[in-house]
Write a structure and sequence with these properties.
3-stranded antiparallel beta sheet, 67 residues, 57% strand, alpha+beta
């Protein structure tokens, strides 16, 4: 039997929403072991002078707790 925990993280990128997700998971993996999935619950874009300058995602990350 395994027990998992879910935590919320926020990540940003100047490239795309996909890149923000990738960067967020890669960074979370440096601290959290056993990540099994992520659910993107919110996306936002920062706009300056009519152009998107930053992409942000808020994610729920699931990881299995150590025995």
């Amino acid at each position: 039997m395994s027990v998992a925990r879910v935590t919320e993280i926020s990540a940003t990128s100047t490239k795309s929403f996909d890149d923000a997700v990738t960067e967020g998971i890669e960074r979370a993996s440096k601290t959290l072991r056993g990540i099994t999935g992520a659910w993107v619950k919110e996306q936002r874009a920062q706009v300056e002078n009519g152009k998107v300058t930053q992409f942000q995602v808020n994610m729920m990350v699931t990881f299995v707790l150590d025995d």
